[in-house]
Structure formats: C-alpha cells, structure tokens
Automatic annotation (TrEMBL):
Alphabetized Gene3D superfamilies for the sequence: Dihydropteroate synthase-like (3.20.20.20), Sulfite Reductase Hemoprotein, domain 1 (3.30.413.10)
Family: Belongs to the IspG family.
Gene it is expressed from: ispG
Pfam families for this protein: GcpE, GcpE_C
Enzyme Commission code(s) on record: 1.17.7.3
GO molecular function, one term: 4 iron, 4 sulfur cluster binding
Record protein name field: 4-hydroxy-3-methylbut-2-en-1-yl diphosphate synthase (flavodoxin)
Highest taxon, organism lineage: Bacteria
Cofactor binding remark: Binds 1 [4Fe-4S] cluster.
Catalytic activity: (2E)-4-hydroxy-3-methylbut-2-enyl diphosphate + oxidized [flavodoxin] + H2O + 2 H(+) = 2-C-methyl-D-erythritol 2,4-cyclic diphosphate + reduced [flavodoxin]
Names of the cofactor(s): [4Fe-4S] cluster
Length: 431
C-alpha cells in the first residue's frame, strides 16, 4: 500500500484513551486514629473486602483482617449479627492496634443493628463505619424507628454510613407500591425494570432521610447491589444520574473462581470506565480452604489494568504456543509475579513509585524482544528450537544476555538491582 492510498484512512485526530472523567461526588472520610481513608470527592477508588470468620472469635477475625489489610484492603467489613459478635468488636480493634494494623473496620448490620449498636456502645465506637440495609429493618413504623435509631447513633459517634440496598432484600412495601404505580402506566415497565428503579429510589430516599435525621451529607455512601452484570450496570448508571453520593460498587453473589472474577470484572470495568464508582469489593465465593485475600488482589488488578491506580509492579507474559513447549517462561513469570507481590509491603515505603513498574517475561523471539523493550525491564526467553540465550532489556536497551541453568535467579537479582537503583533514595543506590 502506497502512502497516497492511506489518504482518507488515517484519523484526523488521535483516538482518545482512558476512562471518562470521574463522576463528581461528595467526599466521605472513614477514620481510625490517624488513619483516614477518603471515599469519593475525587479520591482514588478505594479497595475493600469482608471477613468470613465468626466475629465472636476475636482472634481469628483479627488475624483475617490483618491478612486482608496486608494484601491491600483499605477498608475491611466484619459481620456484626449477634450480641456475642458485637461484644468482641472492641477486642478485635484492640488486637489490630497492637499489631500496628490501622485499617478502619466497617460493621455489617442486618435486622438487629439498632439493638446491637444501642446495647454495645463500645462496639459503636470501635467501628469506623456502619453498613445499613434498609430492606432488613422490619416494616412500617418499626422499620422507620429502627433506621432512625441507627442513624442517630452514627451521628452521635460521627461515623459515616453505607446505605446498601440489595435486590435480594429490597423493601417489600416500597416494591409493592411501585408495582401498583407501574400497573397504572399507559405502557407498564417490566417487573425487572421496576425493581431496578426501586433499588435506586430506596437508596436515595433513605440517604435523604438520614440527612433529615442529622447525619451529614458527607457521611453517606450508597450501594445498589444485584447479581446480574447488565442489571448492575443499568442500576449504577441510573443512580449516578440522580445523586452525588459516592457509590460502592460490587456484584453481589458473583460466584466462585473464574466465573465470579469474570462477572465482577465485566460489570465493574464498564462502570469505572464511565467514571462511576468510588469504592469496590469483589465478592468471590471462596473455594474450600481458599485464600480470602484473592478478592483483594482481583480488585487491585482491575483498577491497575484499567490505569486507575497502581498497587504492585505488573508482569506482562505471553500465553504460550507451539513455539514455547518448554515451561521455563511460565515458571519464571509466575515466580517473578509472586516475588514482586511479596516484596510490596516493604517496597511501597522504601521505593516510592515502584508499584508503577512494568516487567515483561516473554517466551520466544516473535514478540519477546519488542515487548521486553516496551517494559521497564524485560526478558525474552528462548522458545523451542531457538538459541538457548535470554536477552534482558532495561529501559528499552538490551543490557545482558543470560544463559545456563540459573536464568531465573539471575533475572530476579537484576530486577532487585533495578528497583533499588531506579526507585531508591539517592544515598542508597548501588553504583
């Protein structure tokens, strides 16, 4: 194709890249001691998670909270469903403080939250935020009184609240009323559409009532959780168009393993790309004996791969093909990725900016050298039938070629040296 034949094919301006501008929202601050996590108001999207221990077991819960916090969860929610659980919340907080874990705790309340917060004021004070589900607080005047009691306690102790509605526990009276109204429409909506509208109406109306009861408008976060991807996208687009409260995103009951990860990513990525969402949780059903921190890693990887935040150096690796029948590059990619994540608790304070580093581990000559040059540091391993040598590229330049049986350990040492030299303080850099 000649240069002249390209006339009319080239774009008149560069194609825009990146997410839409963040939706303007109020900023909510969740505190514990000197620790302050900002949700909304232009702050970076916050990662949070939830324990699955019995909160009445203070030791087990504190241990899991610590694990989630070390993995990168910036808020951790715990179930507070019984007097025994509420009684142990201050002990959990105390243990975390002794371990130097300052992550704020969010209390998850359903059905009896008004009683527990009233009967256990130490629990109300030890928590940094309350999650309230208005659909699980009774009906009629009882529901109104219970909701008011929780909001008044939150205002008294200056605790922010997430008003979280869920289509599995939507206010039945509200839903019935909106279905009646829908039946009088000239062209009635589908039941599914009415339910989506009811979720948004419930969240916003309860937020406004909370403000009327004395809770500041900058102490309210909203969520409208469903378990189907397209419904979640539609609900949050609608919610974002109707209010400026910060939004907590999450696909509820997402499922196990790859299904849960794919469904959550499909839903949240669309919303985040549109500038919707101020804090996220990936609700994965854990496999038997599985690691609870996986949901934190997935949340971080969604945000990082979209370019919204950086948590740990990213590893680019080819998928493998008939050119890479050896498993060497797979093993090296896995070991380097695991190594980088293990190092981050130390590196994030010692080497500011290291979380933005890109590492390439490629398996053959097709794309290996090119991808390695595009990364901050990369290695192109020999594929099947290729010369048994592995060139290493640093900042786009080929620097050394590794050979023999110790390529993995030698490359890791090169990565360590690069991190110290590029991201370390001038006085600590190696020559």
């Amino acid at each position: 194709m000649t240069d002249s034949s390209l006339t009319g094919l080239c774009a008149t301006a560069p194609v825009s890249v990146g997410p839409a501008a963040r939706r303007p929202t109020r900023g909510v601050t969740v505190r514990w001691g000197d620790k302050a996590v900002r949700v909304g108001g232009g702050a970076p999207v916050v990662v949070q998670s939830m324990t699955n221990t019995d909160t009445a077991d203070a030791v087990a819960t504190a241990i899991q909270v610590k694990e989630l916090a070390l993995a990168g969860s910036e808020l951790v929610r715990i179930t507070v469903n019984t007097p025994e659980a509420a009684r142990e919340v201050p002990a959990i907080r105390e243990q975390l403080d002794r371990m130097g874990v300052s992550v704020p705790l969010v209390g998850d309340f359903h059905y009896n939250g008004h009683k527990l917060l009233s009967q256990f004021p130490e629990c109300a004070q030890a928590l940094s935020k309350y999650r309230i589900n208005p659909g699980n607080m009774g009906g009629g005047k009882k529901r109104d009184d219970n909701f008011a009691q929780m909001i008044e306690i939150a205002a008294r102790y200056q605790k922010p609240v997430r008003i979280g509605v869920n289509w599995g526990s939507l206010d039945h009276e509200l839903m019935a009323r909106m279905m009646d109204e829908n039946s009088r429409r000239t062209q009635p909506w589908t039941a599914q559409a009415v339910m989506r509208d009811a979720l948004v109406v419930s969240a916003i109306s309860n937020a406004r009532r909370a403000e009327q009861l004395g809770l500041p408008g900058d102490a309210i976060v909203l969520s409208c959780k469903v378990s189907h991807v397209q419904d979640l996208i539609a609900v949050y687009r609608d919610l974002a168009s109707r209010c400026d409260y910060p939004a907590h995103l999450g696909l509820t009951e997402a499922g196990m393993g790859s299904k849960g990860i794919v469904a959550s990513t499909a839903a949240l990525a669309v919303l985040l790309q549109e500038g919707i969402g101020d804090t996220i949780r990936i609700s994965l059903t854990p496999e038997p004996g599985g690691d609870r921190t996986r949901e934190v890693v997935v949340a971080q990887e969604i945000l990082q791969t979209m370019g919204l935040r950086a948590f740990t150096p990213m590893v680019v690796a080819c998928p493998g093909c008939g050119r890479t029948s050896s498993t060497v590059f797979q093993e090296l990619a896995d070991s380097i990725q695991s190594y980088l994540r293990r190092q981050m608790p130390v590196w994030k304070t010692r080497y500011p900016g290291v979380e933005t580093m890109n590492v390439a581990v490629m398996g053959c000559v097709v794309n290996g050298p090119g991808e390695s040059r595009h990364a901050d540091i990369g290695i192109s391993l020999p594929g099947t039938g290729e010369v048994p040598s592995a060139p290493v590229y640093i900042d786009g330049e080929r620097t050394v070629t590794l050979k023999g049986d110790h390529i993995a350990s030698e490359f890791q040492a090169i990565v360590e040296n690069y991190v110290e030299r590029r991201y370390g303080a001038p006085g600590s850099q190696r020559p």
